[in-house]
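Posting for a labmate who doesn't have an account.
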Amino acid sequence: MIRDYRSGELLLINKPYTWSSFQAVNKLKHALKKHPSLLLDGKHVHLKIGHAGTLDPLATGLLIICTGKKTKEISTFQDLPKEYTGTFFIGATTPCYDKEKEVDQTYPIDHITEAMVYEAAKSFIGKQEQIPPMFSAVKVDGKRLYKTARAGGELELKARPIEILEFEITACRLPYVDFRISCTKGTYIRSIARDFGLTLNSGAYLDALCRTKIGHFSIEDAQSPEDFIKENTF
């Protein structure tokens, strides 16, 4: 089957580790430049393409990419609930709440029991206000937070409403805690990592993260960028 990327296609891509979401989109855009569906009056036309929901470079998993007229539906996909699996490291913090920056402080964990970890997870379920990480793509006064943070500046961060639908601890092997979280749009799992450490009277950062679902779309149906490009190179 030859897809019609100009009319609009929805693509499920498994974003690799260290790739930015923007990089994943650009790889596909470059590969599709000469696709037959983009040929109009003997010339290849510009491809409209974009993604529905950014993943951090150190996160892997499901990225919905839309082309052509499907790009008009991006906001609809962004509004869908998300599911993530991953790992917290308990007993230390970083400025960005994940491994992109070096550890800036360590904390004791001898007082933490497995029962405390499971109870802490339960306390996060429900509607709440969340403060996003300083190193994030959130805009404050028209500026991306990560740009301000990397320049050494600071902005007042406002809490935003989110909802944690499910929070399951899948393994507890301190200092590592594995989890599965289902949540509404705009939820930062890095911020949950920070708050999870505080709940345990310690510190924590996000050690690994994979987005497994967006609404009813699953990572099980996603392709790597390499496999997609092989199938769509003409």
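Reply:
Got it, the structure tokens are right above this. Residues 10-79+218-231 form a domain with the Pseudouridine synthase fold (CATH 3.30.2350.10).
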